[in-house]
Specification:
This protein is about 50% helix and about 20% strand. It is built from 16 helices and 16 strands. Helix 3 (about 65-75) crosses helix 4 and helix 9 packs parallel to helix 11. The mean pLDDT is about 90.
C-alpha cells in the first residue's frame, strides 16, 4: 500500500513538473509571438490585440528618418544599435505609455485617451522636439537620429492604421516633422483613385495596346515649315478615354511599370518613322538614362534602325540629375549614331546655365511657363532673350514650347527663337500631320 502511495506521489510530482515546464514553454512561445526580440518592446501583434481591447485611444507612429541610409553606411550592427537606442529613448521620454516596435524602423505609441485635434497637435509637437536630432554614441562615432511622427484626429478609429500611415507618407513626402490625419483630408479618396488608376495602367500595358505615341509638329520659325515631330506618350483605357503622362506616369512609377511604358513608346515611334522622312524626338527622364535595360534597348534600336541622324532625345530639365557623368556618357554614346540631344522645359524648376554647359545639348526647349504670356510679359521676354543670346553663343538651337496664339508666335520669332511648337501650330495627334 505504501509503495502504491509512493508511486502515485512520484507520478503527481512528475505531472506537476511537466506542467510547469509546459507552462514555461507556453509563456516563452507567447512572448516570442508578441515581443520584438531586438528591442524587447511589444510588437505589431500585441498592438493589434491591445487595439481590439481598447475603446478610446490615440495612436501615434514614429518612423526613423533615413534609417536605410544609416544602416547601409554604418552596417547592420550599428543599425540594430540605433533601433535599440531609439526604443530606449521612447521608453524614457514616454514613461508608462505603451510603446511598440511594429516594423523595421517604425514604432507605435498608444495613448489611453482619445485626443481632439488641438490637444493631439500640442502633444505631437512637443514629442517631436524630444525626438529630433538625438545623439547616440557607438564606439568613437556620434550618430544623429531624427524621426517623423504621424497620428489621427479622426472621429472614428476605424481603419486607424491606414489613416496614420497615410499621414506618415504625407509627412515624409512633404518633408514635415509630423502630420495628423483629419476626416476632411482627401487622403482616402486619393488612395482609392490611385488604386483604380493603377489597375488602368496595368491593363494598358498588357500587350502594350493601351500605351501609344501622339505626335506634335515643330516648325522652323523662318520658313514656317514642319521639320520635326515630338513623340508624346498617351494611355488609352478600356473605356477609350485618353490620359496624358501627367496623370499616369507617377502611378506607373509607383507600381514599377514605368520602364515598360518608355520602351513601348520608343518601339512604336521607331516603327512609325520608318515609313516617312521626318525628324522626330522622344522624351527621356534621368531615370530612363540610368536604367541599364532601357539604355541597352535604346543603343540596340539606334544600331538596328540606322535612324539616329533623324532622332533627338529630350531630357526633361525638371528631372533632378544626380549623376552628370552618366548623362554625359549616354549622350556621347547616342551621338555616335548621329542622334541629337535637347534639354526640355528649360526655364522651369532649377534651371541654370552651368547645367547646359555640362550637358552640351543640340537644342534647348524653352518652357511653356515663359512662352505662354511672352507677348505681354516683359519679364518673360527678358529671361527668354538671355536664354536665346546664350544659346546662340554656344551654337545651340532654341525651341519655344506652348505657342498657343499668333501674337505669341510673332513675339517668339522677333526674339530670335529658331523653332516653335504648340496648339496654335497643331495639337498632338496619333497620326503624322505635316
Amino acid at each position: 500500500m505504501n509503495r502504491d502511495v509512493s508511486s502515485a506521489t512520484v507520478l503527481q510530482d512528475k505531472v506537476k513538473l511537466l506542467s510547469r515546464e509546459l507552462h514555461v514553454v507556453q509563456q516563452s512561445l507567447i512572448e516570442q509571438f508578441y515581443i520584438d526580440p531586438l528591442t524587447r518592446l511589444p510588437n505589431l501583434y500585441q498592438l493589434r490585440h491591445d487595439l481590439e481591447e481598447a475603446t478610446r485611444f490615440t495612436l501615434i507612429i514614429a518612423n526613423i528618418d533615413n534609417f536605410k541610409l544609416l544602416n547601409d553606411f554604418y552596417g547592420f550592427v550599428v543599425g540594430d544599435f540605433i533601433l535599440e537606442s531609439f526604443a530606449k529613448t521612447l521608453k524614457s521620454e514616454l514613461g508608462d505609455t505603451r510603446v511598440y516596435r511594429i516594423a523595421g524602423d517604425e514604432f507605435a505609441i498608444l495613448l489611453s485617451e482619445k485626443m481632439n485635434f488641438y490637444t493631439l497637435k500640442a502633444y505631437v509637437s512637443q514629442l517631436c522636439k524630444k525626438l529630433t536630432h538625438i545623439k547616440y554614441a557607438y564606439a568613437q562615432t556620434e550618430i544623429y537620429v531624427d524621426s517623423t511622427l504621424s497620428s489621427s484626429a479622426s472621429e472614428s478609429n476605424d481603419d486607424i492604421f491606414s489613416k496614420v500611415s497615410m499621414a506618415q507618407k504625407f509627412a515624409k513626402k512633404k518633408q514635415l516633422k509630423y502630420w495628423i490625419f483629419e476626416d476632411s483630408m482627401p487622403f482616402a479618396q486619393e488612395y482609392e483613385n490611385n488604386l483604380k488608376y493603377a489597375t488602368k495602367v496595368r491593363k494598358a500595358i498588357v500587350d502594350c495596346s493601351g500605351i501609344v505615341p501622339y505626335f506634335q509638329p515643330i516648325i522652323d520659325n523662318e520658313t514656317g515649315i514642319v521639320v520635326k515631330f515630338e513623340s508624346l506618350s498617351r494611355m488609352i483605357d478600356e473605356e477609350g478615354i485618353i490620359h496624358t503622362p501627367h496623370n499616369f506616369i507617377p502611378v506607373a512609377k509607383m507600381i514599377k511599370v514605368y520602364d515598360k511604358i518608355t520602351t513601348t513608346i520608343i518601339e512604336k515611334t521607331f516603327e512609325i518613322f520608318e515609313h516617312n522622312s521626318y525628324d522626330f524626338s522622344i522624351n527621356l527622364s534621368f531615370e530612363d538614362i540610368v536604367n541599364q535595360d532601357i539604355y541597352d534597348f535604346i543603343i540596340q534600336k539606334l544600331h538596328d534602325s540606322r535612324m539616329g541622324e533623324r532622332l533627338t532625345f529630350e531630357l526633361l530639365e525638371s528631372e533632378r540629375v544626380n549623376d552628370y557623368n552618366k548623362v554625359v556618357h549616354f549622350f556621347n554614346e547616342i551621338k555616335r549614331y548621329g542622334a541629337k540631344v535637347a534639354i526640355d522645359d528649360f526655364g522651369s524648376g532649377f534651371s541654370n546655365f552651368s547645367y547646359i554647359i555640362k550637358l552640351n545639348p543640340d537644342f534647348i526647349k524653352i518652357d511653356g511657363s515663359l512662352i505662354k504670356d511672352i507677348d505681354k510679359d516683359k519679364n518673360a521676354q527678358i529671361v527668354v532673350e538671355t536664354i536665346v543670346a546664350f544659346s546662340k553663343k554656344m551654337g545651340i538651337k532654341t525651341v519655344a514650347e506652348f505657342v498657343h496664339s499668333s501674337t505669341v508666335l510673332s513675339t517668339v520669332k522677333q526674339l530670335g527663337i529658331d523653332y516653335s511648337q504648340g496648339y496654335f501650330i497643331d495639337m498632338p495627334s496619333p497620326q503624322i500631320n505635316p
